[in-house]
Amino acid sequence: MNAPISPPPETRYTVLDAPRRGIRDVLMRWEVILVILLAATTVVNTMVSPYFLDVFNLADATFNFSEKAIIALAMALLILVRQIDLSVAAIVALAAMGIGYAAEAGFGPGALFAVGIGIGLACGVFNGLLVTGAGLPAIVVTIGTMSLFRGLTQVVLGDQAKTKYPQEFLDLGQSYFIKMKETGISWLFVPPVPLSFLIFLVLAVLFGIVLHKTATGRKLFAIGSNPIAARFSGIPVDRLTFLLFMVSGILSGLAAALLTARLGSMRSNIAIGWELDIVTMVILGGVSIAGGVGSILGVVLAVFVLGLVTFGMSLNNIPGQVVSVYIGALLIAVIAIPRIVDRLGLRKPAG
Amino acid sequence: MKTTRRELIRIAGAGAVVLAAPAIITRPARAANKRIALIVKNLGNSYFDACANGAKEAAAELGGIEIIYTASAKPTAEEQIAVIDAQIAQKVDGIIVSANDADALVPVGKKAAERGIKVMSFDSAIAPAGRTVHLSASSTPLIGAKQVQMIAKTLGNKGEVAILSAASTMTNQNSWIEAMKEEWKKPEYAEMPLVATVYGDDQDDKSYREMQGLVKAHPNLRGVISPTTIGIRSGAKAIVDGGLIGKVYITGLGLPSEMKDYVMQGACDSFAIWNPVEYGYASTMIMADLLNGKDAAEGAKLSMGKKGETTVGKDGEAVMGEPFEFNKTNVEEFAKIF
Q1: pLDDT digits (tens, 9 = 90+) for B123-162
Q2: How many C-beta atoms lie closer than 10 Å to residue B100's C-beta?
Q3: For chain B, what is the radius of gyration of the CA atoms?
Q4: How many CB pairs below 8 A link A and B?
Q5: Which comes out higher in pLDDT, residue B306 or A16?
Q6: More confidently predicted of A53 and A257
Q7: How far is B81 from chain A (nearest CA, A)?
Q8: Which of A226, A288, A290, B110 is 20–30 Å from A191 (CA)?
């Protein structure tokens, strides 16, 4: 090209702060929608079924989604940094098998949880090494390890089940960790809480603080927004990504221990298909699959919406397939509503 | 900005109500005074739909019973537990389950029992600790005897007979064959010898070739018993393809939808399997007995309505009866069901 090269500018460019409204607005919108959905679900279910607003029934309902919800916390961070771990359900199977063998060998409850978490951690390290060390795309790696871990479980177990566990271990998964306590005042009581749900709540607070109140959290958002820019800003992208895969493995192992204790039995098809349920929780929670956007509050709200919708619909004996169709529609609708609102010009574009 | 956000919330709210609508439409009827949940492995399965029809038939006969027929979207233990939990929450009176996993359903079965709900299994059992009664469709001796009786009737007790089984390693196949041989000892089968047992490994092509081999190896072969749905359909096809209709007959355990054409063509005179309508009916009748406080200890007799009585055996196991026979008169009707 012969075009004259323009002289370098005298002054450096001024980089303006990003308009604060942008991301804030998305978050606000999303969580507001989820809160409305949650309220609507509760109100409708209460109106339709006399069995919905019953502390014991609600506590029982939490049993059925808490293990998935625990893994969803790790998945949220992975998706936030543009990664994904599709092997979580297979890690649950492998860890549950380890727990099954350890229980047969006479290990106690604490050791069984340690075995589950240990196997989960090892799987997480394996995934992390392949993604950050070998630089392979996470979706490919974890689809591979999904088959690998699940296949390993199937080869070892065949059609056998592991059904021998110590009673104290089973109690952790099957009874309420915090027992119902009444105070004499009808609306003031300590609700019954299963261990898995309690762990989920504690972890959710912890993850919320790390993601939204610490420098590490800001770094994760930076990686998700632009991994290359993050790397050039001195953020240890690989190390953090590796760490997240480890966390994902650890929480999958923990979920495996809780699930095995709840079922009192494990087969090679344990937790099959969970990875997509978990991804659904995260996406409904407003974590952008393109990375860089999301909040733990959103994920927690989405967990409750999905859990209560599923429970409410099965209370009304709506067949499982209809529940799936409805959840699919819900996901698409919740994601589409903000976009449609934008298209209709109801909201002025930012700036 | 203020107004637009309010508008946005309004739209989101409207969306939420629309999305919550399916829950509003299906308000449950609560006229019956006893509710029995029939929870199967998966929905959209015509076999289980037929079971549910039988259950509803029993409920209508008894009166005052509502059947809740449901299942999870995926045939897994975890999802089935969630469905059972929802039934416990609704405080149903009885739960009849075809289990996706015998052991994993034990805790939830115990929980239901603790809350005063009667639990029984049918089709696919829950381990004894998690239920009171399991109703099997049939028993090994009955299944074995029935198949020998069917081929004897077709052949008039005369002619060489062979067995076309699945794999030699399959426990249920082997125990059925043992039961057949037990029946075969009876004097009326003296002129109907068992000449061979071959294995098609539950593969269509291998079963087909084994059937062709049998006919070649035993020129006087008149009948074949195949206690597997794959063996019987492949064997029947080999009879039709080989132009052996009227010369060799096949019987065994088959599905009406797969066997209909072969029965109409004459390759198969009769075959058997349990009747799912009767199965759902008998299960519901037994549950009604349990709800009325009948004891289900070993040796107790429970009513199966027009199907008679069954005796509870070891570990709460009960048997419905001999397999149901299908022939030209009824196969077309049942082919629509399963």
Answers
A1: 889 999 999 999 999 998 999 999 999 999 999 999 999 9
A2: 25
A3: 24
A4: 155
A5: B306
A6: A257
A7: 8
A8: B110
**C-alpha to C-alpha distances, B155 to B183, B223, B296, nearest whole angstrom:** 16, 7, 42
Contacts of A60 in chain B (CB under 8 A): 85, 88-89
- Is the pLDDT assigned to residue B7 strictly greater than 70? no
pLDDT tens per residue across span A112-150: 999 999 999 999 999 999 999 999 999 999 999 999 999
B77 Cβ under 8 Å from any chain A Cβ: yes
The strand ranges marked E within chain B are 34-39, 65-70, 94-97, 118-122, 133-136, 160-165, 194-199, 221-226, 249-252, 270-273, 301-303, 309-311, 317-319, 324-327
Instruction: Identify the residue with better confidence: B100 or B1.
Output: B100
Q: What is the pLDDT of residues B78-103, one digit of tens each?
A: 999 999 999 999 999 999 999 988 89
Q: Which fold has domain A21-340?
A: ABC transporter involved in vitamin B12 uptake, BtuC (1.10.3470)
- The pLDDT of residue A41 is above 80: yes
C-alpha angle A156-A125-A235 in degrees, rounded to nearest 5: 160
Residues of A within 8 A of B28 (CB-CB) are 49, 316-317
The answer to whether the CB of B322 falls within 8 A of the CB of B142 is: yes
Per-residue pLDDT averaged across B315-335, rounded? 92
Kindly report the nearest CA distance between residue A241 and chain B, in angstroms: 31
Residues in A 307-346 with any Cβ partner in B closer than 8 A: 310-324, 326, 329-330, 333-334, 337, 341, 346
> A residues 64-123 near B, CB within 8 Å?
64
Better-scored residue on pLDDT, B95 or A10: B95
List residues bridging with B70 in a β-sheet: B39
Helices and strands, number each (H, E), in chain B: 11, 14
Q: What is the pLDDT of residues B111-125, one digit of tens each?
A: 999 999 999 999 889
Residue positions counted in chain A: 351
Amino acid at B220: N
Which two structure tokens, joined as six digits, stand for A236? 């240890």
According to DSSP, the β-strands at B34-39 and A193-194 are unpaired
Model pTM score: 0.81
Cα–Cα distance between A324 and A337 in angstroms, integer?
A: 20
Q: Give the three-class secondary structure for A29.
A: helix
Task: Give me the mean pLDDT over the A43-66 stretch.
Answer: 92
**Cα Rg, chain A, nearest whole Å:** 23
The token duo for B34 is 């006893």
Domains of chain B, each with CATH number or no CATH: 34-136+276-320 (3.40.50.2300), 140-273 (3.40.50.2300)
Between CA B268 and CA B262 the distance in angstroms is: 6
Q: How far is A213 from chain B (nearest CA, A)?
A: 27
Q: Would an 8 Å CB–CB cutoff place A271 in contact with chain B?
A: yes
d(CA B315, CA A316): 33
